Automatic annotation (TrEMBL):
Residues 464-645 form the VWFA domain. Pathway: Porphyrin-containing compound metabolism; bacteriochlorophyll biosynthesis. Residues 315-425, 436-455 are annotated as: Disordered. Residues 400-425 have a biased composition (Basic and acidic residues). Involved in bacteriochlorophyll biosynthesis; introduces a magnesium ion into protoporphyrin IX to yield Mg-protoporphyrin IX. Residues 355-365, 389-398 have a biased composition (Low complexity). This is Mg-protoporphyrin IX chelatase. It comes from Kolteria novifilia. Residues 122-194 form the MCM C-terminal AAA(+) ATPase domain.
Length: 645
């Protein structure tokens, strides 16, 4: 292997992780598959496996001196310099493996003004970014779920078009950018934006082996590598060469692999049964099956090849992932858990309308559980509460929280503005100003105060919207849960465009449950809301305590805005902690704590009153007052809903 990169852990030395290795190798055989998303806990060789591709990807040929790695014989994809050259020397080079740090700037990703050219020759030229460096190779992103939104947007554009167009700093350029996208993430640290998730061709979940034998072998090999990287790599060198040769052979065979209509029908049936959106899964499954056939040395695609790849294609595309709970705290498989309140079998009919609280508050051992139901949503119209601008919020609350607003470096740079005393100098824009007014001496720009520009950043942050939904038995009376679900779905629809983070807390029985951890996946939130079960008592204090903890964690992780939406009738009847405590008083205590949190960050709250009927306790009015929240009757949302035609 290459002597310049001795510290890359050999791919062939990995222990286990067969599906992961297969997914990565298939992408080297057929880069059109679309890359691999590796999902798993820490310490499961996610990044080690990805970096192992460095020594396996087949070499590429390109034009000598071309920073964009243009491919000979593909003039339509070449940069302007290569297109205009009459003759150019062709060279062979290692396939690129580029790591995109999650803290990278947009300039680093896309490219920017080449300051060396400006300062040395007074010429404007593009300094290629990481997308140019990754062309025809692998782009790897560790913790891809934590990647900044503006970088995700740029990646999506490049992935969809295979091109990068830059118009900035007085430079206009375009170049091809096709790469195998490999990302790794720990699901406990947050979800991936759905738009980027769908761009990954394959997904593989990994876990550390449970058996002592493989675990000890992994440790043994890792210690040997750390002690003598060069010697360890030399031990595996022949196997690495053999694997790379097999990749080259399979890539050459791929275009000759036959696929008949019967296989297309099999793939279409599998994808239709999984309920995937669009046809990207069908195309990816076909490409992966073709690559697997080429890898296996076969001449045509069979159902066995499709079976080998289908789960990797569908893992992240199924509308209802099998055997998957919405929370990130899933118990390990094959470990029996006591049935939750939600899972217990119904044994009695619901209480009569208007008397739902009496049966819910029963705590005798022989009391029968109320019937559990799943209601379909009813059409409703609701609007998210508005929040004040972040800047004004921070100035009012920074002292209260002990924080100081950062002077610079936070938020995406949106423009440069003239500033003779810049707080955050935009050097490139300042140099460009000097060049534009002709202030050049001995080939170098001469700057004065009038040329200086400061970066202006977009300090807006997506807020966290916490839905606290009453799913107790009282919500089944008069089918109120139908309207509650309709209201939440209407609110969720608005978060798609605002790209807010959402979290869903449901409370019923004896506890509150974080049904959906904070994420930007409105579709997943919608799925969880539609399937939410109704029945049991009303642990309102538990839900408000969970919401308070969630917002506190959000602020501790750098969040700066939050909204709380409570949908309930306020009929709390489950004590928090002390069984002798007053559930309603405890609920108000938690509401007061939440009000203080939201006031400190300029957050807003709203209570949707679900109580109906002639006899009303009116508790939601006091709850809203304690929270400092607006109060809106849930019944009014049907009056605002558009009439179906």
């Amino acid at each position: 292997m290459s002597p310049t990169r001795p510290r890359t852990y050999p791919f062939v030395a990995l222990v286990g992780q067969d599906r992961l290795r297969t997914a990565l190798l298939l992408n080297l055989v057929s880069p059109e598959i679309g890359g691999v998303l590796i999902v798993g806990e820490r310490g499961t060789a996610k990044s080690t496996a990805a970096r192992g591709l460095t020594e396996l990807a087949p070499a590429i040929t390109t034009m000598l001196g071309c920073p964009f790695r243009c491919e000979p014989g593909h003039a339509q994809d070449c940069c302007e310099a290569c297109q205009g050259a009459s003759e150019q020397e062709i060279v062979e080079m290692a396939s690129p493996f580029v790591h995109l740090p999650i803290g990278a700037t947009e300039d680093r990703l896309l490219g920017s003004l080449d300051l060396d050219r400006v300062l040395q020759k007074g010429e404007r030229a593009l300094q290629p970014g990481l997308l140019a460096s990754a062309h025809r190779g692998v782009l790897y992103i560790d913790e891809v779920n934590l990647l900044a939104d503006h970088l995700v947007d740029a990646l999506l554009d490049a992935s969809a078009s295979g091109q990068v167009t830059i118009e900035r700093d007085g430079v206009t350029a375009s170049h091809a950018s096709r790469f195998v996208l490999v990302g790794s993430m720990n699901p406990d640290e947050g979800r991936l934006r759905p738009q980027l998730l769908d761009r990954f061709g394959l997904t593989v979940e990994v876990a550390a082996p449970r058996e002592p034998g493989p675990r000890s072998e992994i440790v043994r090999r890792r210690l040997a590598f750390d002690a003598d990287p060069v010697g360890f790599c030399r031990q595996w060198e022949q196997e690495q060469y053999a694997l790379r040769d097999r990749i080259v052979t399979a890539r050459q065979r791929r275009s000759a692999i036959a696929t008949d209509d019967a296989i297309l029908g099999v793939i279409a049936g599998i994808c239709a049964e999984a309920g995937v959106e669009g046809l990207r899964a069908d195309i990816t499954m076909l490409r992966a099956a073709q690559a697997f056939a080429a890898w296996s040395g076969d001449e045509s695609v069979t159902e066995a090849h499709v079976d080998a790849v289908k789960e990797m294609v569908l893992e992240h595309r199924r509308r209802e992932p099998p055997n998957r709970r919405p929370s990130s705290s899933n118990p390990p498989p094959n470990h029996e858990q006591p049935p939750s309140d939600r899972e217990r079998s119904p044994t009695s009919p619901p209480p009569p309308p208007g008397d739902e609280s009496s049966s819910e508050s029963s705590s005798t051992p022989n009391a029968t559980a109320p019937r559990e139901q799943v209601f379909a949503p009813r059409q409703a119209s609701a609007k998210l509460p508005e929040v004040p601008p972040v800047a004004s919020v921070r100035s009012a609350s920074a002292d209260a929280r002990g924080d100081r607003q950062p002077k610079h470096g936070r938020g995406e740079v949106v423009r440069s503005v003239p500033d003779p005393k810049p707080r955050e100098l935009d050097l490139q824009a300042s140099v460009r100003n000097a060049l534009e007014r002709g202030a050049v001496q001995s080939g170098l720009p001469q700057l004065d105060r009038s040329d200086l520009k400061s970066r202006e950043r977009d300090r807006r942050t997506q807020r966290l919207i916490v839905f606290v939904v009453d799913a107790s038995g009282s919500m089944g009376a008069r089918r109120r849960m139908e309207l509650v679900k309709g209201a939440v779905l209407a609110l969720l629809d608005q978060t798609r465009t605002a790209r807010d983070e959402v979290a869903l807390i449901a409370f019923r029985g004896t506890e509150a449950e974080l049904v959906l951890a904070p994420c930007r996946d409105a579709r997943e939130a919608e799925r969880q809301m539609r399937s939410l079960t109704t029945g049991g008592r009303t642990p309102l204090a538990h839900a408000l305590a969970e919401a308070s903890s969630l917002i506190e964690r959000h602020l501790g992780e750098g969040g700066r805005s939050a909204s709380l939406l409570v949908l309930s009738d306020g009929r709390a009847n489950v004590a928090l902690g002390d069984p002798a405590g007053d559930p309603w008083r405890q609920s108000l205590e938690q509401a007061k704590r939440l009000a203080e949190q939201l006031a400190g960050i300029g957050g807003v709250a709203r209570v949707y009153d679900t109580e109906e009927g002639f006899v009303k306790l009116g508790r939601t009015q006091e709850l809203a007052s304690t929270l400092g929240a607006d109060l809106e009757p849930i019944a009014r949302l049907t009056e605002l809903a558009p009439v179906a035609t």
